[in-house]
Every structure is written in C-alpha cells, then in structure tokens.
Design goal:
The complex is a heterodimer of chains A (119) and B (108). Chain A is mostly beta strands and 119 residues long. Helix content of chain A is 0%, strand content 51%. Chain B contains no helices and 9 strands. In chain B, the strands form 2 sheets. In chain B, strands 1, 3, 4, 7, 8 and 9 form a 6-stranded mixed β-sheet that branches. A 3-stranded antiparallel β-sheet of chain B has the order 2-6-5, with no helix packed on it. Classes of the chains: A mainly beta (119), B mainly beta (108). Chains A and B meet through β5 and β10 of A and β3, β7 and β8 of B.
C-alpha cells in the first residue's frame, strides 16, 4: 500500500523558515517524480514544486521560486521542502504527492501538513 | 501562464447526472486529469488522461473532452459524491502543473 506521510508544519513568523518532510512507503521511491501541492484555507489546489527521480531536475511555481527548495533522499525514501522568506500568503496545507509513471498527474497524496505564517 | 476555468458550483438531484466542465486554451492537446476532494481529506484521483479511471473508482465517474473543454460526468449521483472537484493539466511550455479553480458539487 502506497503511503505518504508529511511532517514539519507549524506556526512561523513572516520572513522565517520551515522544512517539510514526506516519508514514502509501499513503492520504489526512486522510480517516481515527487511533488508538493498546497491549499490555502478555503481555497483551491496549487502546485508548488516537483523533483525528478534523483533530484537532479526540479521545477517551481513562480510564487515560490527563489524562496523554496525541493530535495529528496532516496536512501531514506524522503522528500523535503525547504521554505525560506515565508510570507503570510504561504499559509496553507502542504501535500506531498507522487507523480504518475508518465509524470503528468498525481496518483497518490499524503494527508498534508499545515503551515501557518503569522506575526 | 496557463489557466483552467471551472464553474464554482454545480447542483444535482440524487440519481441524476452531474457534469463539471474545465476549459482552457488548446486543451485538446493536453491530457486532463480530475480529482475529488471531500472536506478535511486529501484529493483523490478519479479520472486521468481525459477518460481513464484508476482502479477502485466507480464506473459512474467518466471523463470526456471536446473542443475547448473537458468534462467530468458523474452518473447516478449519490449523497457521498458531494465534494470539490478539480481538473488538472501539465503545461509543457512552462513545466508547470496547473489546477482549475475547483467546482463544489452539491447533491440536493
């Protein structure tokens, strides 16, 4: 059974940093692209970032580019999102999602971790 | 950046068919995928590549695409189908994954 478990969310002040983690199980982690998707309270889904199989290629939404860094540790089946220079508008539930074999959609999702940026 | 447009809400009586549309420029050239999200839960993939269903998703859920819009159809709607539904595509020109704004399905 595929499982994705996020952690690391919490309360942080504007300008601060936070590191999210997603531990994967039930599949060969290094065979799949991985993503972060977020959802602000009461709002829709927004794609944030993706990593290819080994982290050598990444992509970011314009709203987080230059502030967030996605990385992965295939030996530990873990995906990370380092979030720097956080803004109030980054407040959201952050989901870890596994890409499909053809990489174009999201086959499995974690339960999410809440990040709240407030002074 | 690429934009997908969905109606904010759709209402349907139990047993009827709900249709949720997703429009975008040149959407015919892109694979469209659909997710269901119930309150307090993570999204679940219900249709991929325009019209394919993952294992475990009821046949009542189907997808189609014509012209400038894709459509998610849910036949014989049940109270348990009440949820938010999102369409999604991959925009190859920007290497970004794009979601529609979401449609809340209400079962009357």
């Amino acid at each position: 059974e595929v499982q994705l478990v996020e952690s690391g969310g919490g309360l942080v002040q504007p300008g601060g940093s936070l590191r999210l983690s997603c531990v994967a199980s039930g599949f060969t982690f290094s065979d799949y692209w991985m993503h972060w998707v977020r959802q602000a309270p009461g709002k829709g889904l927004v794609w944030v970032s993706r990593s290819n199989y080994d982290g050598s290629s990444t992509s970011y939404a314009d709203s987080v580019k230059g502030r967030f860094i996605i990385s992965r540790d295939n030996a530990k089946n873990t995906l990370h999102l380092q979030m720097n220079s956080l803004r109030v508008e980054d407040t959201a539930v952050y989901y870890c999602a596994r890409g499909s074999v053809r990489t174009v959609f999201f086959e499995y999702w974690g339960q999410g971790t809440l990040v709240t940026v407030t002074s | 950046s690429y934009v997908l447009t969905q109606p904010p809400s759709v209402s349907v009586a139990p047993g009827q068919t709900a249709r949720i549309t997703c429009g975008g420029n040149n959407i015919g050239s892109k694979g469209v995928h659909w997710y269901q999200q119930k309150p307090g839960q993570a999204p679940v993939l219900v249709v991929y590549d325009d019209s394919d269903r993952p294992s475990g998703i009821p046949e009542r859920f189907s997808g189609s695409k014509s012209g400038s819009a894709a459509t998610l159809s849910i036949s014989r709607v049940e109270a348990g189908d009440e949820a938010d539904y999102y369409c999604q595509v991959w925009d190859g020109s920007s290497d970004h994954w794009v979601f529609g704004g979401g449609t809340r399905l209400t079962v009357l």
